[in-house]
Design brief:
Layout lengths: L12 E2 L4 E6 L24 E8 L3 E9 L3 E7 L9 E3 L7 E6 L6 E9 L5 E11 L6 E3 L5 E4 L6 E4 L6 E3 L4 E3 L1
Parallel strand pairs: 1-3
Antiparallel strand pairs: 2-9, 3-8, 4-7, 4-9, 5-6, 5-8, 10-11, 11-12, 13-14
């Protein structure tokens, strides 16, 4: 259960270890006050929300999923931009699950907040926060011990393998591999 009542930008729920959280933002306040649809795909958020905080290590990934009978949106923002920032956001379904994926490719740890926004008047929800391991960078390449070329995939969550029958050579100056 949530102990901060209501959780706000200045007193968020500590989600450092990730996990599952059962919440109800019906008694929350409107922390995230951006009226732009650039973050989630919709605008006009004036409903209550809950705020969670955590540090995402450099090179780590984050997967957040939420379910509710209400109309939730998820917004990920830098901790110092809680009321108006946006690194990633989603508002895909009414009354259905929402999933947000994010990769920290900055090369430094990020102090982040996750805002669970309710478009209308608040509702009970279940939130799962998973802090995942290493991620690759766009364009990153490497040669495997087996002599194949690996290239970071478009999702930045792993490598695609390209077979190299004659072996893979890595060019350290350009940081690129080739078959």
């Amino acid at each position: 259960p949530i102990t901060n009542s209501p959780p706000t930008c200045t007193a968020p729920i500590d989600a450092t270890a990730g996990g599952t959280f059962d919440g109800n933002n019906a008694n929350g306040i409107n922390n995230w006050q951006t009226d732009s649809d650039a973050c989630t795909g919709f605008s006009g958020y004036s409903g209550p929300d809950d705020v969670y905080s955590f540090r995402l290590p450099a090179g780590a990934r984050l997967r957040v999923s939420a379910s509710s009978s209400g109309d939730l949106a998820l917004v990920l923002a830098p901790a110092d931009q809680c009321s108006d920032g946006c690194l990633a956001g989603i508002d895909g379904t009414f009354g259905g699950p929402e999933e947000l994926l994010y990769a920290n490719t900055t090369g430094a740890p990020q102090d982040l907040v996750l805002i669970v926004e309710e478009f209308f008047g608040g509702a009970p929800y279940t939130l799962d926060i998973e802090l995942l391991g290493d991620v690759c960078s766009a364009g990153e390449q490497r040669c495997t011990q087996e002599g194949n070329l690996e290239v970071c995939n478009a999702s930045l969550d792993g490598f695609d393998t390209i077979p190299c029958p004659g072996g893979c050579e890595f060019e350290p100056f350009e940081q690129r591999g080739q078959c």
